[in-house]
Amino acid sequence: MNQFFTILIGTGAKRHLTGKLGTAVHGCAALVALAVIYTTTIKYVDLYVMMVVFLSAMLALLFLSVSAGPKGREDRPSILDWILVVASIVVGIYFFIESGRIAERITLLYPLEISDLLAASVLLALTIEATRRTVGFGLTSVVLVFVVYNLLGHSLPGALGFREVSYNHFLDIMMFTSDGLFGVPLRVAATYAFLFVMFGTFLAKAGGAEFFYNLASALAGRRTGGPAKISVISSGLYGTMSGSPTSDVVTTGSVTIPIMQRLGYSKPLSGSVEVAASTGGSLLPPVMGSAAFIMAEYTGIAYRDIAIAGIVPALLYFLCVYAQVHLRSQKLGLKGLSRDETPALPDTLRNGGLFILPLVALSGALVMGYSPTFVAVIATGVVLLVATVRRSTRMGPKAIWDALAVTTLRMVSVVAACAAAGLVIGGISMTGLGGKFADLVYLMAGDSAFIALFISALLAIILGMGMPTPSAFILGAVLVGPTLLEMDFSLLQSNMFILYFAVLSAMTPPVAVAAFAASAIAEARPLEIAVGAVKLAITAFIVPFAFVYGEGLLLVGSWMDITVSCISAIIGVLLLSIAAEGFWREKLTRYPRIGFGLAGLLFIMPSWWAVGIASICVVLSVIATPHLRIHKYNIPA
Question: Matching InterPro entries, A to Z (predicted)?
Answer without folding.
Answer: DctM (IPR010656), TRAP_DctM-Dct_fused (IPR011853)
